[in-house]
Amino acid sequence: MAIKWEGVMPAVTTKFDENDELDLNTFEKNINAQLEAGVSGIILGGTLGEASTLTPKEKENLVKKTLEVVNGKVPVIINIAEQSTKDAIQVAQDAFAWGAQGLMLLPPMRYKATDRETVVYLKEIAKSTSLPIMIYNNPVDYKIEVSLEMFEELLAECDNIEAVKESTRDISNVIRLKNKFGDRLKVLCGVDTLALESMVSGADGWVAGLVAAYPEETVAIYKLVKAGELKEALKIYSWFMPLLELDISPQLVQNIKLAEVATGLGTENVRAPRLQLEGAERKRVLTIIDDAMAKRPTLVDYKSL
């Protein structure tokens, strides 16, 4: 399946039951809600989320379950965030064997690679697979930035590097990327609190977090922006902002899962070492969610745009 790298692509949370096993029934309910809302793809194994706690078998089960639920409607993409080039290549090969249609690829985890090491790492993985790839560029959280010059080298040698999840927090970088590479490199916003601004600046799509709890509102913002209905998009985005800010936190998984409980699309079960929120922080997050739910907007018919 070819990937268009546009629209809203949820970085979905991983669902667990009370016994710390995959909760595939709740997971299926959430994926169906994403599809009904009109998302353009499903991204599994969020790197700032709980992907690092999953076993290879759990990753395989998630991919195969998602493919079953999606049934060809949208592409299924899995993250690669490994410690070594060898392991990353193995995940790429496994993903292909499991039936995934694309990869989201980070620079090396934990080790702060040089620019040369980063480029070689990304090239070797890209050249090991035929699957299309979106590079995740997040120097704020991962301390490595893939510069325009590095992208130029990568794109010259790796036809299957097709997109970037742009998370530098620098809105003008969207314009730099589009000016330099045009449609050769699709740009998707990777920071929820900068999504509308990024799309107005030319981003092709949005790799979203709070979409896991609010799929319709997220897709509506994208559709309205692309249709030029900025006033209507801004109304939803302004309501959404306190919730979107829950995504830029080390506890983003716990925050998003509490929001999923509020909308009936998940549970708050997390995998250790993460723990459910408690005390003042739990009260603060629930207050934000409860306030948003009380003011949840009525959406226009965005699907017809």
Automatic annotation (TrEMBL):
SMART domains: DHDPS. Pyruvate binds at residue 207. The active site is at residues 136, 165. InterPro entries: Aldolase_TIM, DapA-like. GO terms for molecular function: 4-hydroxy-tetrahydrodipicolinate synthase activity. The keyword Lyase applies. It comes from the Bacteria. Keywords: Lyase. Belongs to the DapA family. This is 4-hydroxy-tetrahydrodipicolinate synthase.
